[in-house]
Amino acid sequence: MSTSPLFSADISEVRLQKSPRDMLTPTWQMDLFIFETLILIPIYIFILLGFVVSRKRHKTFQSPYYTLMVSQGLADICTIVIYSSLLAARYFSFGNILIYSLSPYSAMAYTNSGPFMFTLRGVGVFLITTQRYLTVCKSHGTFNYQLNHCPPFLIGLGHWFIALLIYLPALLHTETRFENEITLLTIASRTHLQYTSITVMTTYLVACISVIFMYSQIIIVMIRARKVDHGVSITVKTSNKKLKDARLTLHVFILVIFCFISFFFYIGEYILAYDEDNTRVRAFRLYYPTVSGNLSFINPIMLLTLNKDVQNAFCCKLKVCGHLDEQKKNLFRLSETTNNTITCRKKRGEIYDGMIRIFE
């Protein structure tokens, strides 16, 4: 048995010389991960719920692009939740005894969660890039037509099923255990390490080549379209649509960049894992939550900054909330005015009755 250098021990951090009764000491990478989680995950969940709720009212959110964004968002949130549970156990001794008592099943789950979720997010970025390629370059093609008319559930299910199918050989050869109940460092067999390494690296190699090809075609089409439109009067609707396609394409391109960063991080970790000096690979693994977390955290940031549909939806909700608050204030003022009027009338009636009694 050997320590899995690629994924299983990717969060095995430092200071393993501590007493078994002590918990690991948090690092600035952990602090950054926790800060980003507390700030961005609630926003991310709110955006995804907005996509689901708005599908019935807005046709825009019924497109395959937003369906894949919801599926990718679920993968991002699951990744953060799984890692956060292990983070709480390692650094705050919250649930570590329970997790250790459920081994080897818990060890198998945490060992496979890293590479599988990484594969799942990589497949998601590939599918989203493919959707942008079909929309920009093959908008009148048969495949784009079939994709636009495919049920959303099948699109999301296909995303997760493809990733599971790719990772299945590594899943079937899982052999792992925890080092102890404090560090929860997973010790995986070399066979499992080889399967996970080959599976993920092959997947991302194919995805990288495909994404580079598709984006080269997208750039060519957009440059040609700009040359054709130069000096030609075009409608505002056409101009807005092209600007929207450019923004969405830029959003996906940034996702691809962060995906590449994570991929090269795993390659570096894999190389350092076979170094005789274990301190370097352990120090390198400290950056796992930063790299892997940012692959998930960048999506809500890009949705808020580059996606006009999301911005308009947020603005509309804020305007509606503000309008409702104003209506409540107006109703409150009206009720106060009505109550004052009724009180004045009652007082006038009492004065009038008193005057009648005096004259009587």
UniProtKB/TrEMBL annotation:
Keyword Lipoprotein carried by entry: no
Organism (species): Caenorhabditis latens
Organism classification: Eukaryota, Metazoa, Ecdysozoa, Nematoda, Chromadorea
Listed InterPro entries: 7TM_GPCR_serpentine_rcpt_Srv (IPR019426), GPCR_Rhodpsn_7TM (IPR017452)
Gene3D superfamilies: Rhodopsin 7-helix transmembrane proteins (1.20.1070.10)
Domain G-protein coupled receptors family 1 profile: 45-303
Protein name: G-protein coupled receptors family 1 profile domain-containing protein
Chain ranges passing through the membrane: 32-53, 65-89, 109-129, 150-170, 204-225, 246-267, 287-306
GO cellular component terms given for this protein: plasma membrane
Predominant subcellular localization, coarse grouping: membrane
GO molecular function: neuropeptide receptor activity
Membrane topology: Multi-pass membrane protein
